[in-house]
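WARN  no MSA supplied for this record, continuing single-sequence
INFO  ligand: guanosine-5',3'-tetraphosphate
INFO  echoing inputs
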Amino acid sequence: MDLLKNKIKAEGVVLSETVLKVDSFLNHQVDPELMVEIGKEFAQRFKDQGITKVLTIESSGIAPGVMTALQLEVPLVFARKKKSLTLSEGILSSKVYSFTKKEENTISISHKYIQNDDRVLLIDDFLANGQAALGLIDLVKQAGAEVAGIGIVIEKAFQDGGKLVRETGYRVESLAEIQSLENGQVQFKQEEAKV
Ligand code: G4P
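INFO  complex generated
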């Protein structure tokens, strides 16, 4: 998705060979117009999948997730990382280990909002080690629902997540695939293929 790649080139900050900071449009400040376009792109790619719910994880998945749900005309559900005061009955939970942050989170949803007749599109902002996506897949399975596909805004193709998640057999669509962050430069996958 060129609009997204151009935004990453213009505003992304390479913090190290493994971490890209995109706080100006995705992880802290949010660019609503870009999110609308991201929502349209995911909706276009998954429109024939009979999706009934979009599922993401708080917090940075919510903006692209809600715009995708808007385009597909279905609700968005976001998994919580912290216990909610009001979320108490019929909770489904999965443990997600973050290699980046070296911490384990328990992510939870209410079974009420993902039921066994749902076809669920998973959306997340980053695909790094894949643990978050695997946790979401686990929640959908616990609900007895179907994963209809996985949409990722930025995939770091040099980390293991893409392989791990694709091994599940579900369709994964990433809007920007980063091949490398070496030498302070963002190199996208397609660019490398053209060389
Ligand atoms: P995973 O999401 O593929 O399982 O990978 P990992 O556990 O390593 O990622 C943990 C958190 O770090 C996630 O956010 C993920 O989006 C984020 N992350 C991973 N790599 C990068 C990166 O290169 N740049 C940025 N900006 N974020 C990265 P989170 O903790 O869920 O945060 P948030 O959604 O509350 O913002």
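The pocket of guanosine-5',3'-tetraphosphate is lined by residues 19-22, 27, 57, 59-61, 98-101, 125-132, 156, 161 (CB under 6 Å).
INFO  checksum written, moving to next record
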